Structure formats: structure tokens, C-alpha cells
Amino acid sequence: MNLSEWLENEDLKQTVKSLEQLVPRPLHTAVIFGSFLARSIDFLSLDHRSEIKMKSLPHYPLPSVAGQEKSLISGTIKNKLVLLFSGRIHYYEGYRLLETVLPVIISKKLGAKQIIITNSAGGLNPEFTIDDIMLIENHLNLMGDNPLFGYSYDRRHDYFINLAQPYSQSLLSAADLAARQIGLRPKHGVYAGVRGPVLETAAEANMLRIIGADAVGMSTVAETIMANYLNLDVLGISHIRNLVSGQETSFSHLEGNKKETKVGKMLSNLIEKVIEDS
User: What's the pLDDT tens digit per position in 99-110?
Assistant: First the structure.
């Protein structure tokens, strides 16, 4: 199967068709919420809200880890149509990498021009503190795979894409300005995407910092690659949930939900401002 055939396969068509009947179009922005970040949706000024359970959609993969909700929410923010993915699946859950980028493909097929991809990450930069917001300037793909790999070449779908700047510079500037307008001091940095689910050894943390990573997580990279392939503008946002030093890593995934309200308010304000101004 080549990539063009996969993008037109019957399972995907059925998923999209079911959403076309439920989601107003064309979308302005799609947002993927990372681990423990979906609480942000409760604080968005979202009009005409409609919730769709993932389990009601044909062939839609369901998240299985703590901190991931299982619904899609549509509505308007400042009269702009949005689709919010409240929960994502990860490569480490055993899904194919192409399945993890399904929200990106759906967003494109429903007319979105831009996508905001969020994640919870471990901070590697010694200047970072817990609960910092990092705007992703670039990434390191350390997942050992990418969603375009392994397909027969097709002239209709050239996947030798230029990823020198995978994140939209205009959205990055808009997000930086928006953050400062609402009282945040965002960090900027490079996100390292790894397979997971195990956390980094001290040696691995040191290596990641040496090769230029400011934060590390287990998502975002594949979604960003697919978004670039589909000509979607990408804004990447990391919430620094824990600090990863060269000496130790200390983090409990199961304890992550304790900060949901604080972080949710902070992130929702930023996302809403970016959508309003873009």
C-alpha cells in the first residue's frame, strides 16, 4: 500500500464521513490536548459546543493511559470553528504510528488550516521550572520511525518534505505575543520526541541535553510531520510537568491530574488568544 492509498482507505473514509455529519465545516483550527491537559477545554469560551465520544466513531482508536480523555469537541471560539481532541493515543500503546496521527488527517479533511498540538513534557533545560509553558521552535525525532516511512513512492504524494522549520513561524510569534499579553513568560525550545513509555535514564537525559533538547516527551513529533505533509500550519506547546536532570528523573504519571485546574486555565487562555488573533 502506498501513502495515497492509505489516506483513501475505507476505514478512514468511514471515520471522516461520520464526523462530517457531526462537525460544522470548514474548520479554522484543530487542537490536540496532551496528557492531563484536556481540562483546558472547560475554561475555553466555547460557543455551540458539541461533544462526540470517540467510541461512537467507526474505526477510531481509543486512548488507554491515565490523563487521556476519550472525546472530540466542536464549537466556536470568537466565531471561528474549532475541533478539540480531548485525548490522544501514543505509539507506546501499541498502535501503528499512522494511527497516532489520525487527528491530524481528520482535521485536514474537515478543512482546518492550522493545528495546535500540545503535550506534557519533561524539562531538560536547567533554566526551566515546573509548570513553564514552552513554545516549540523545532524538534528532534528520536522515535525511530515517522508516519511517512515505508510506503512506495507516489508522484501524487511527494513525502520528501522539507522539515527545516516544521513549526509555523507566524503562529510561534503570535503565541509568544499572546502569552505575554495574558501575563505568561513563555520559554522557547527544542522538543525531543521519544518512543516511551519508560522515562529517561540519567545518561539519556544528559545525552538529550547535549544534542540540543530543551524538553522531552512521547508524542507531537509524528503529528507535526503529518501536519507538514498535509500543509497544515503547526503550533506546538509543551507544558513542563516535571524536570529531568542529569542526575535523576522523578515523576509519577498517575499523579499528573492534580494540577489540571491551574494548568488548564493557563493553557486555555493562551490557546483562545492565539485562535482569536490568527
Answer: 899 999 999 999
Tally Cβ neighbours within 10 Å of residue 260: 16
CB 73 within 8 A of CB 51: yes
Bond into 26 cis (ω within 30): yes
| Best CA proximity match to 241, nearest among 264, 222, 223, 220 | 264
Amino acid (1-letter code) at residue 57: L
- Identify which of 102, 99, 103 has the alpha carbon closest to the alpha carbon of residue 74: 103
Nearest residue to 178 via CA among 223, 218, 129, 135: 135
Strands (E), the chain: 29-33, 47-53, 71-77, 80-86, 114-123, 133-142, 187-194, 215-217, 233-243
146, three cell numbers: 515517522
The b-or-e profile of 140-149 (16+ CB within 10 A means b, else e) is bbbbeebbbe
Which three-class secondary structure state does DSSP give residue 62? coil
Q: What is the largest CA-CA distance in the chain?
A: 52
Q: 151-206: per-residue pLDDT in tens?
A: 766 666 678 889 999 999 999 999 999 999 999 999 999 999 999 999 999 999 99
Which H or E run contains 176? helix 169-181
Of 193, 197, 209, 195, nearest in space to 244 by CA: 209
Q: Strand, coil or helix: what is 158?
A: coil
The residue type at 116: I
